[in-house]
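Posted in: Structural Biology > Protein-Ligand Complexes

Title: Requesting predicted complex, FE2/S2 (inorganic) cluster in pocket

I'd be grateful if someone could produce the 3D structure tokens for the following input. Sequence and ligand are given below.
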Amino acid sequence: MIPKDRAVTSTPTLQVRLRAITFEADTIIHLEFVNMASGQPLPAFSAGAHIDLHLPTPNGLLVRSYSLLNDPRETHRYCIGVNRDAQSRGGSRHVHDVLRVGQVLAISPPRNHFPLDENAPFNVFIAGGIGITPMLAMIARSQALGIPWRLHYAARTHQHAGFLTTLAAYHGQPGADVALYFDHEPCGQMLDLERVVGSLPDGAHVYCCGPLPMLQAYERATTALPTARVHREYFAAKDAAATEGGFTVELARSRKTLVVPPGKTILDCLIDIQVEPPFSCREGVCGTCEVRVLEGTPDHRDLVLSDAEHAINDRMMVCCSGAKSPKLVLDI
Ligand code: FES
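-- Reply #1 --
Done. Output follows.
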């Protein structure tokens, strides 16, 4: 049996060295990676991008996605923040317990499913917990572009909130505004998403990243806004993967056909015949397993593509999505 966390990847990887680990908050560390080829720049990235860390463990290779948090103008390093997740399937625990300064790691080049609209007149960022990480890169980019911004950042307490020093450096800068919410502190304030969304400046774009209840509340609060101005990134699935089965998948490049039975995802079946694409989260949130659809109608269950992108039906996440048509033809 293939371990659940095994991931195989055929995409190119980069070798980076872990240059520094810094304590950020109770369960959060900050990691800085530099190019193995000393002095060479790393591939450029845009605000909202993430990298996949390839973590060799005794139980197989774990691939885990983390948002880049540093200023996208920097080409000498990639920085991420990792929360030690109590529900960890092994990734964040491995990062906290095993990784040490000086180690060399394989990572994916940066990919971005949560891009910043650089033409917005105003940006509002809403972050819960470790969801602050993509916002830090977006804030740096907004600042560089001269786009005014406001951050609403919620955590249980000051001790649970990372990157407060980074945020404090923006204090007093033109166009910058930070509001903090610590609902587990005496006299702490709750973040009121309805109020935040109800008082957006004209034309503002709004971005949210945080735990599932926050994102669900955000989606309810933003239903009346034009979708082009509403952006979000999930950490975890909100719907179950499609495992109803009962359809056929033709693999155009491999010239194979498989029948997906009830109880399995397309990715499970691809792993069985060893034609798996790269994959990581297996929950439809990272975008690693995206495959082109040549024919048929997917039953999209991912949280990576937008509704408009789903409607085009030219690509799908095979870890969680199924089929509405009897047959899919995939570019694998
Ligand atoms: S593996 Fe992450 S979206 Fe499919």
